[in-house]
Amino acid sequence: MPSKVEEFGLFIGGKWTSPAKAKRFETVNPATREPIGSFVSGTPEDVGRAVAAAAKAFPAWKETPAPKRGDILLEAARILKERKPEVGKIVTREMGKVIGEGLGDVQESIDFIEYMAGEGRRLFGETVPSELRSKFCLTVRQPKGVVACITPWNFPTAIPNWKIAAALISGNTVVFKPASNTARCAAEVVRLYEDAGVPPGVLNFVTGSGSVVGNALVADPRIRTVSFTGGVETGRDVYVRGAQGLKMVHLELGGKNPVILMEDADLGLALEGVLFGAFGTSGQRCTATSRLIVHEAVYDDFLGRLLERLDRFTVGDPLDPATGMGPVASADQERKILDYIAIGKREARLRYGGTKLTGGIYDRGYFVAPTVFETAHGTRISKEEIFGPVLSVLKVRSYEEAVRVANDVDYGLSSSIYTRDVNRAFRAMDDLEAGITYVNAPTIGAEVQLPFGGVKNTGNGGREAGSVAIEEFTEIKTVFVDFSSRLQKAQIDEGSGE
Questions:
Q1: 298 CB contacts (<8 Å, ≥6 apart)?
Q2: Does domain 10-253+459-478 have CATH number 1.10.4160.10?
Q3: Pick the catalytic residue: 188, 252, 385, 472?
Q4: CATH for 257-439?
């Protein structure tokens, strides 16, 4: 007899609750289709209660000294360090990334929470000179109020913590809506802050669909900032809805990230980087390497090495440390990827993979073979985000052509160049239209102390992580202190009007 699936409620005002007669949904292990947990399908009324709890808690949390807020974040990081093996396994079981990456997801959470705790003793403003005598000018940061954090499934602990830790250290209260298919991971994030001592109402958790819970959050006038990571079309809808309420909306959206491989590159180093960049997390990263732009002088050599290496690349049980790639995250994700592979077969040359894997463990889950196409620039698979283990390989004749191809897409998140020419590397840093550029490394591997985000359809200009993470969650207040004991008029000549 199968064991009972663990049930989770909503977390509102510091209490876990399951509304009477609430509809529920389950998350499943994408490697086995076994249920992971049962969750409440939240309603607009649930969202209203969560926002009310956050609004009630805001004044006291705002008045809590920022270093004291940082102490709570440090406690959260300490607890998560203890729980890392357990939570990393939950990430792998619910999302499907291999166990090393599941643990890495948790480690990124730990790193960022610790980093944001330090911001509690910074939250820098500026002091600047006045044009007048006996006058002091400065800026201070203040929290926005109640913020909504809406997160995706591909980094089910790291991205929520990117948003929540930055919002909390800034003095905001939060309503958190995770992606439905990784709600179990999200519940662990909430438990973490609960156990660390976050006061009731400061962090609230409502599960459910984006069309119901997400839309209700964006529409609520008490929500002053919406931080959203997800797809472009959904992000555009969130942006438009938020604009109707004059809310600050921060978007982190898609990518079509290129690796440029020049004729002087270290091909062995590049091979390992391309494999990890393209097939790590089964290609389900917004920074995944989805285009490989190779100079014609090394094209045949490198493509041969890549195809040979894929013959030894293991796809299977993500809990097995020897596995190189696990399943994709869901049936919907599998269907979308296979549809794009079908498009690729019509417009490009398939060189590897291109199938749903079957037999044994594969029949129980959502497994797609690592796939490589040779293609010309301009095909759909070379320009549209697939978000799966599909790599488009393109041949170019020069650095200038490589940059032109790299930039000719709607996205601009991450980019990479492999070269031994330092002059060319520095040119690429300037020429590539992307928020992130790597030199002699793949397009994945962001570090929490540096800003993360992109240009064009990748977002609307903001950045997460790094010291700038607090910018989307704070208002700048300018303060003038005049201690001259007389009326002084800036920009007006002395004696004017007399």
A1: 261, 263, 265, 267
A2: no
A3: 252
A4: 3.40.309.10
